[in-house]
Amino acid sequence: xxxxxxxxxxxxxxxxxxxxxxxxxxxxxxxxxxxxxxxxxxxxxxxxxxxxxxxxxxxxxxxxxxxxxxxxxxxxxxxxxxxxxxxxxxxxxxxxxxxxxxxxxxxxxxxxxxxxxxxxxxxxxxxxxxxxxxxxxxxxxxxxxxxxxxxx
Length: 152
Prior knowledge:
Largest sheet: 6 strands, mixed
Low-confidence stretches: 1-5
Order of helices and strands: HEHEEEHEHEH
Helix content: 25-40%
């Protein structure tokens, strides 16, 4: 990726964390994007002013997986409340979602997309982590997300 082009682009990484694992994963994502030359803003959703979306090119947003073991997984209500305010503000092609989990992510991807009013048939990247660490596969997904999104 061309760092000169990326350097002019701004990514906003938002998260809602319960015990710190999701915050750690969000920081990992933010630092990786920064290493690729993007201007990155990292924020807990509780501290985020949605007006700042007017200044961002990429939205990366996530929370921990709530629910009982393998059924009923859903985004936390605080993440959902903030996300409803952001729905439709950033193109789905410039949106990436992430979650951390203990057992399984279940229907998190579908429910997070629904909260952001992203059509079911629209594919957007989704990262998930059990330990909060960014894997090589995650990095490849982020690289593809950035390079593909430049065309939208």
